[in-house]
Structures are given as C-alpha cells and as structure tokens.
Amino acid sequence: MEANSDSAEQNNINRPQPVFLLLLDGWGVAAKSEANAISLAKLPNILKLIKEYPAAPLASLNSSINSRYFSLGLGREMLEDDVNSFYDLSAIISTSGLKQLKIFDSERLAPLTYFFNGRREEKLMGEEWLTISSANEQQVFDPFLALDRKIKASLKAVKSNEYDFIVAACPILDTLATNNDLMGVIKAAELIDKAVRRLAAEILSLNGILIISSTHGNAEKIIEIGTGLPNKEITNNPVPIIIVAQEFKGKTIGLQDSPDGDLSLLQTDGSLIDIAPTILDFLQIKNKESMAGKSLLIN
Fold this sequence. Notes:
7 strands
C-alpha cells in the first residue's frame, strides 16, 4: 500500500498545472457603443481579471466558425475543407499521456470535436467528451439553461482534479446576437461574468490556469451603427484573451496594459493560432513544431 501511495504522490508531483480553456463565442473586442452589447453589460468580475492578469486582444481569422476551431486546434490558419497533415493540440496532449475533457452543446459539437481535433471523428486515448443538453423539460431550446448546465459541469470537472486540460465552448452570446436579442446578450454576459468568478476561484484553488477567449465576435456589433439594421453575422474583430494564474498576477502580455480594463484601446498581441502553443507551454509539452502560432509566454 505504501508503494502505491508513493507512486501516486510522485505522479502528482510530476503532473503539470491543469489548464482550462473557456471559449465565450460571440465576444469580440470593439470600442464602447450602443451597438456593443458587451460594453453595455455590467462585468465587474471579468474587468477585475483583465486588470489583475495578462490580457490582450488577439487577431481573429477571416473564416467560418468551423475553420476558426480548426485553426485553434491546429495552431495554424486552416480552412474547414483543408486536409489536415499536421499534429493537433488534442493529439499532442493525448500522446503525452495526459487526460482531457471537451464540454459542449449541439451548436459546438462539430467545431469542438471534429474540427478542433484536426478533422478527426474518433476520440483519442485519455480524451472525454461531455455533451450538454440545451433543451428544457418541454424540449424547447433554452440557451440560458444550457449555459447554467455547462458552468455546473465545468465546476464539477475542475473539482474532480481528474483532467490536465479542459475546454468548454459557450456560444450563448453568439446565439442571442444572431437573433438580434440585445437585452438577452446583456443578460447572458452578466451571467457569464458571475460564472467566471466562480470558475476562476476554483481553478486558482488548485493552482490551475484559466484561459478565457473566443473564436469570433458578434455581440460587440449587434446592429449596424450607420443604418440601425440588425447585424447577424460573425465579425472579424479581435477577440479577447485573459490568462488567470497565480504566478501571472500583476503581469501583462507584451508591454501593454489595458486602461480601465478596456481591451479595445490596445493593439492586438498575437492571434487565435497562438493559443494552442501557449497551452502546450503551460502543460510543459515541447512538441510544437507543427504549429505556426507562437506561445504568448515568450512575451
């Protein structure tokens, strides 16, 4: 029994810090305006994280949602009909003997499994998928219920301390912005803000790392200012990245700091394809040769 206990203790010592990637699709970075539902919402917890931890706008990609997830997982710019001949993030994590979990609803099933995994359909060794239902008891689509279920599932997964890497896709901002539901987006953003506080606290208590980002904007341009007409398309605006970890408190990405937590006042510092190599750095994995992106830790 003592030998097994010693072995388990040694495994925990050698284990990297757990990394949680939270994708808040629909959150793009833009100047404050009446068309920017994100800036109209009260987000005290997210603004606090932006001020206290490394945060920056990242350049997004001029492509579809599937292509952006494909690029995010590969660490290089890809189109959804490209043939993958590279080594993706999920595969590198799997071959390193680490455990990973993907949390999603039906809206992000294909992007977060098939495309994020380099257009691979089967699960990898050490990889688990958790599908969250977006339907209520009457089998009616309810994005707020889906968000609540995803946050609860995320907290449970973090508390289990079973996974080295978790990625959760929450597209509620995108969904409501596509429906031109300004008040709905504001409500969802404020619920996300409260959830982020709980998630960050739990991850920090385990000495883990929380990365908050998005694959595309939408909610920051819910109407066309010039015409007042609804804008239902995803945008090519920058997307945020916030890296929350005990050892990075008080630091910045590059030389920039965000005045008053407003990322729209900063120049972009990297792009979506830099997230995967950054995650590998956090997981202490050196195999990044197939990625065109560069780890944000070099800054």
